[in-house]
Design brief:
The chain is 23% helix and 26% strand. The protein is an alpha+beta fold and 688 residues long. It has 4 domains: 15-135, Vaccinia Virus protein VP39 (Rossmann fold, 3-Layer(aba) Sandwich), CATH 3.40.50; 169-372, Distorted Sandwich (Hnrnp arginine n-methyltransferase1), CATH 2.70.160; 381-511, Vaccinia Virus protein VP39 (Rossmann fold), CATH 3.40.50.150; 515-684, Hnrnp arginine n-methyltransferase1 (Distorted Sandwich), CATH 2.70.160. Helix 1 (15-23) packs across helix 17 (544-557) and helix 3 (33-52) packs parallel to helix 4 (68-75).
């Protein structure tokens, strides 16, 4: 059999399609053992019940992906199976996987969307199917178009008495007070160490409901005590996948709720569960650990194990990354709920999205949220967290008070920098704000106007800095932050801007930060490595061909380092943090650099990833009080059986080990910095 998949991406020349294949969630889903087993159980129960009733089982699998569910249907005794897959490279891979498992005569694979299938003798489907098995869901349940796909299938492809797997879904909502998640949505007043207000938030920003984009998150990893549950989990929507007339695009449900404790209703935590079969014998829950039906049983099972590592509470339940939970922000309110108070939770959905509100039974319906202030368009949620991070802001502002004076002219080379704007309120002569993005610039202008800041000048590009302005600059400041940055060191764009502007600036200019240091930490992740790990066999089926497809395209199109919010993925350090490279903005930024070294790993067989981050040093002392870290909250000095606590307002870089060879105890590493391309390259030689 030909295992070469290179032609899969040849039609369009390549890169984008290869990247789409490499980053598809097919393998991630197949690592979800609970999902796989419960789909398998539901297929066996459904098909056996049909046969017991004297009926045949004709199965349609929409969006077959790897072909796994179709092969499960054959193994369960289906009389016929039709599978469709529109993503051509995956369809070709599924065809080979099905053949490798000896089922090519039992499964008819159609490389089309389900909405393009024809039914009748000699057509795509010989007859309508009386069993539908499919996985059309995302974290928001309906965000991938499940409603429209089901309605079309029920009308055109399925029998009236069809049995769907899953059978139905229930969406749950829990109203919470959670300052942590609110800090990723709402900007706070910025004050100095004495409590003096430097910047107030404009009213249009305070009242903005933010973006309608789903905020998916691993709720089980929220720090203990970080939220106050104002209600129990509340079922708000039910979707019966076999009932065409109930699968409508727009619904509004109201639920009377008693507040179980007092607090401000700031957000809704949402998740859903699936009843997999029509008899309700198989349930798959996406609930966080505190609401998961199996949590107590699984926790007791873990308590009986002999592992010495401290398992986080949220990791007793089955892990998955393709279906998480979601946070929805409620319209801002200054009125708290009192314990025992009855209120109405309003739940809405359209064809693709959910949203929520608090009101009365007679309240006017609430429209879907959209950003009117610009901040939720210009900046990411993690950036909101950085802007609201009181410890981070305190370090910057304390440093400003030491180094700025009434004669200071500060050039700010960061986008959306409220700290740079705050400097204008601290008595400096002038602040020059680099804001090349029009939306971000309007956001900052609103702050300037609302706070009556007069000593600010905006620069729409670095070229807009006039020589007279440049010659007056005493301090150059960057957080640094640029919205285009994905990995922490992508913000080295600051050094590139500085390099280009330096000939115009006085030689005496103070540069803040003066340097950045790259660090690495060898890790054992409990689950994150699965998103990049080979499958081999899955529920008894050989899926190694899909491993080869993804690995081949990943090697071509993906960076070996990806950005992840590591606080959501518990991990254990296998050594102390290793300094990789220091990049000096004062002296040698224009020079290519290469550093080499070794990391000595405790228990190398546990190694499955390497975390990487940047610390920014405001001055040459490199003191903890003048260092801003995008990595662990507490310095990691040695291997530990306690999970690492990561800064939740940054995405760190992580290199996930795809293969599982023998590991070295000593890992040689090489880091290269190319200032021309503004790139950092990493190599870790961990294979024995």
């Amino acid at each position: 059999m030909d295992d070469n998949f290179q032609d899969s991406a040849s039609d369009d020349g390549g890169f984008d399609l290869r990247q789409e294949i490499a980053r598809s969630a097919f393998a991630d889903m197949c690592h979800d053992w609970e999902r796989n087993q419960k789909y398998d159980q539901a297929l066996q129960l459904t098909i056996s019940r049909l046969h017991a009733a004297g009926q045949q089982a004709h199965v349609l699998d929409i969006g077959t992906g790897s072909g796994l569910l179709s092969m499960m249907a054959v193994r369960a005794g289906a009389d016929s199976v039709v599978a469709c897959e529109a993503f051509r490279p995956m369809a070709e891979c599924a065809e080979r996987i099905i053949e490798a498992n000896g089922m090519q005569e039992r499964i008819r694979l159609v490389k089309k969307r389900s909405t393009q299938l024809s039914v009748g003798p000699g057509q795509d489907m010989e007859r309508r199917a009386n069993v539908l098995v499919t996985e059309l869901f995302d974290t928001e349940l309906i965000g991938e178009g499940a409603l429209g796909t089901y309605r079309h299938a029920l009308q055109h492809l399925l029998t009236d008495d069809v049995l769907t797997i899953p059978h139905e879904a229930t969406v749950y909502a829990q109203v919470v007070e959670c300052p942590l998640v609110l800090s990723w949505q709402q900007l706070k007043t910025l004050s100095n160490a004495d409590g003096d207000i430097l910047l107030r938030v404009p009213p249009e920003v305070v009242s903005c409901r933010g973006s309608s984009a789903v905020f998916d998150i691993q709720l089980s990893q929220l720090p203990v005590g970080s939220f106050n549950a104002l209600t129990d989990p509340i079922p708000v929507f039910k979707f019966s996948w076999s009932k065409h007339n109930e699968l409508v695009n727009n619904r509004n449900e109201k639920r009377d709720c008693p507040a179980r404790t007092s607090g401000f209703p700031q957000a809704v935590f949402m998740w859903w569960d699936l009843v997999m079969d029509s008899a309700g014998d198989v349930l798959l829950s996406c609930a966080p650990y505190w609401a998961h039906p199996d949590h107590a049983t699984l926790k007791q099972k873990q308590a009986n194990s002999t592992t010495k590592r401290r398992m986080p509470e949220g990791n007793y339940i089955p892990w998955r990354d393709h279906w998480m939970q979601a946070v929805y922000f409620l319209p801002p309110t200054k009125v708290p709920l009192e314990r025992g108070h009855q209120f109405v939770l309003q739940a809405y959905h359209d064809e693709y999205s959910l949203w929520f509100g608090i009101g009365e039974q007679t309240s006017t319906p609430l429209s879907a949220p959209h950003c009117v202030c610009g901040w939720h368009i210009a900046q990411s949620r993690s950036r909101f967290g950085q802007l609201n991070d009181s410890l981070r802001n305190k370090r910057y502002l304390n440093y400003f008070e030491r180094v700025f004076s009434s004669d200071s002219v500060v050039l700010v080379l960061s986008e959306g920098s409220l700290l740079g704007l705050a400097a204008a309120r601290m008595g400096v002569k002038q602040v020059l704000l680099y804001e090349p993005n029009a939306i971000s610039r309007r956001c900052m202008e609103a702050f300037v106007e609302h706070n009556s800041v007069s000593n600010v000048c905006f620069l729409s590009s670095a070229d807009a800095l006039e020589s007279e302005q440049a010659s007056s600059v005493t301090h150059l400041f960057a957080e640094p932050h640029f919205p285009s940055a994905i990995l922490p060191w992508d913000n080295l764009h600051y050094g590139d801007l500085l390099k280009n502007l330096r000939p115009m600036l006085p030689t005496s200019v103070t540069v803040i930060p003066s340097s950045g240091t790259l660090y690495a930490l060898p890790m054992e992740f409990l689950d994150l490595q699965k998103i990049n790990a080979p499958l081999g066999t899955c529920e008894g089926f050989d899926l190694s061909l899909m491993d080869r497809l993804i690995e081949q395209h990943s090697a071509y199109a993906d960076s070996p380092i990806e950005a992840q919010p590591l606080w959501e993925y518990p991990s254990f350090p296998l050594a102390g943090a290793m300094r990789l490279m220091e990049i000096d903005f004062l002296a040698d930024f224009e020079q290519s650099k290469i550093e080499r070294g070794e990391i000595r790993v405790v228990e190398p067989e546990r190694l499955n990833g390497i975390a990487i981050w940047v610390d920014w040093h405001l001055d040459e002392t490199r003191s903890p009080k003048t260092t801003i870290s995008s990595g662990p909250l507490v310095p990691v000095e040695e291997a530990s059986d306690e999970p690492t606590r990561w800064n939740a307002n940054w995405r760190q870089g992580v290199h996930l080990l795809r293969k599982l060879p023998n590991r070295k105890e000593v890992i040689p590493w090489t880091v290269k910095f190319n200032p021309v391309l503004n790139n950092v390259y990493f190599q870790f030689d961990y294979e024995d």
